[in-house]
Write a structure and sequence with these properties.
2 copies of one chain form a homodimer.
Chain A: E1 6-9, E2 14-15, E3 21-22, E4 26-32, E5 42-45, E6 71-72, E7 77-78, E8 83-87, E9 102-103, E10 108-109, H1 119-132, E11 138-144, H2 146-157, E12 162-168, H3 176-190, H4 207-221, H5 224-230, H6 248-260, H7 266-278, E13 299-305, H8 313-324, E14 329-335, H9 343-346, H10 348-362
Parallel strand pairs in A: 5-8, 5-11, 6-7, 11-12, 12-13, 13-14
Antiparallel strand pairs in A: 1-4, 2-3, 4-8, 9-10
Helix pairs in contact in A: 1-2, 3-4, 3-7, 4-6
Chain lengths: 368, 368
Amino acid sequence: MANYLQQFKLPDPFVFHRGGTISNAMLAYETWGALNDDQSNAILLLTGLSADSHAASHGPKDTAGWWEFMIGPGKAIDTNQWFVICASSLGSCKGSTGPCSPNPKTNQPYRFDFPDLTIEDIAHSTVLLCQSLGIQQLHTVIGPSMGGMTALALVLNHPGYTRHLIHLASGMASPPFSTAIRSLQREAILKDVNFNEGHYSADAWPEEGMKFARKIGMLSYRSAKEWDERFPRSLKKVPNQAFGTEFPVESYLEHHANQFIHKFDPISYLYLSRSMDWFNGNGYAKSGENPLKDKGLVSALVVGAHTDLLFPVHLQKELHALLLSSDSESELVIVDSIQGHDAFLVDKTTFTELVGRRLNQTMGSVCN
Amino acid sequence: MANYLQQFKLPDPFVFHRGGTISNAMLAYETWGALNDDQSNAILLLTGLSADSHAASHGPKDTAGWWEFMIGPGKAIDTNQWFVICASSLGSCKGSTGPCSPNPKTNQPYRFDFPDLTIEDIAHSTVLLCQSLGIQQLHTVIGPSMGGMTALALVLNHPGYTRHLIHLASGMASPPFSTAIRSLQREAILKDVNFNEGHYSADAWPEEGMKFARKIGMLSYRSAKEWDERFPRSLKKVPNQAFGTEFPVESYLEHHANQFIHKFDPISYLYLSRSMDWFNGNGYAKSGENPLKDKGLVSALVVGAHTDLLFPVHLQKELHALLLSSDSESELVIVDSIQGHDAFLVDKTTFTELVGRRLNQTMGSVCN
């Protein structure tokens, strides 16, 4: 994978939406396919909170990416047709600059001296990356989950920069229920004694906090219905201590949380998580006005899942209605996937069909 | 309230469903109304996890109970007609014997030496209480939430002891999603350094664990829809520290969790919480057979709410189907209340109408 990882140096200084600057900042990114002569076949893929730039493998010897089934030659996002760009989010510490990167002024990690990160900053930095690649206008922005918010921030702040939008499992703002879940995740990390106000180290990692945060998050990633099918009612094991792990769902949470602990930087997690709760696309217009009006969007596909607890379907319906009353076409699809918020990562058949069909429908505007 | 609090001494020893015994154990309980001559007007009310015996006031100078709007002269559960009994659950430390009660053998609290508590033990102890009051058969058992499970344990283990069942916001077993939430609540308490393997004290109380457990629980008590209406999207305040309380829903969780910290004993909470995850009414019959067959139940009212995350409506549908295919009448009502699991405590109009109507319908079997 490392062979394909590229770096884009952000302008110096990079100025944040809420104020504050950083120097020597960069984005780690990957691309698939080739940009055509008139740069009309570019797709920007914006990621969820914990994903990185490695959305798909670059060849048979490469490791699989997080959307491997979606992206590649002959796949729904056909890299024989499209030039696809995916960056690790600014602030994510998956190769891009974030709170655990060294502050050039001190040679120590920024930690809480990293400026307040917003979804708008993630959008802005990726627009700069695309422009550096010679792309005057994107054909399509695709954003699932946090990436859907980033896609909206791009449309709102960079009107006309994308013609089409594919918006999956996301919305114009986080509902209070989702903010509550993320708030408890942040609280679990912040109160871990090893977190130590951000001065943790590899030897004293806030493992318990990260683990608990992941478990809380997992309540919202799938659906109660999927868990009903996954876990039988019969008890699995006798715990070896009072109130030890006993129920199948407990083992499941424990296993997945343990896998996550060292995969993500704790402060990065806090910054990205909060940026989702801060984002409010509706705040871009006065009450009663349409924030998406005159943003140059030609068409949108908005997809939600009935079982999504984190971004429930009323958010996709709200976005679809805003798009319809703006100057954009819009198609709303609410899918029956039982995988909840994660459906876009798991329900391959449904999502490849939807994304593939939409790209084929809008391909007319590509000049090959 | 204390004037009306009565004590029932359990048989010595009291033998638990999963083994183990306790001595000198008692239940704290309250009653309303008068038992009629042939003991045919007795209603047993079984409580949710955190409620106590004080379901309603006993007069104008008494404090309000947790179901004040439901119980009293002229109310839906009309105490001019009915004799109502409500006990604090065995194990709950709201006056009844539980893990924080002194073990007569050591004069120290039982802590983890308290036997494994099951929903069946709570049901059994309340049946013994009712029998001690001279009640050969209950007219109706009413159980919301954990109380609904206790009511089912009563029907399954004490066939014929109640003629009617009113089952609210509960089910034959806990779905994995609810078990996961309760497991995380237990984990939050267990990992608090002040919990100290059960050897906490009033001076070193596991406040953080209890607070975090309550916050996690609150994710499941109401509904995302109710929170959408309760909390505006606009931000409320600037936090006074990095990642301090900022969003309205955070203040709400913080406020309610702080109120709960000292209202419940941590080990009692663990025991009662686990008993809900252990309960499996379906385990009373071989696969494919109906565990509720021949249990002597005449009729049941089963109520659920579309917005209940903890006991979703498929559980009430399952129970209703089991009742219909047993020898009982059953009516299923799924209400549109937006208050989620808490609807029975909050949606007064809907629940007083349902409970009142059902009691009036079945009153024919009372001999006044």
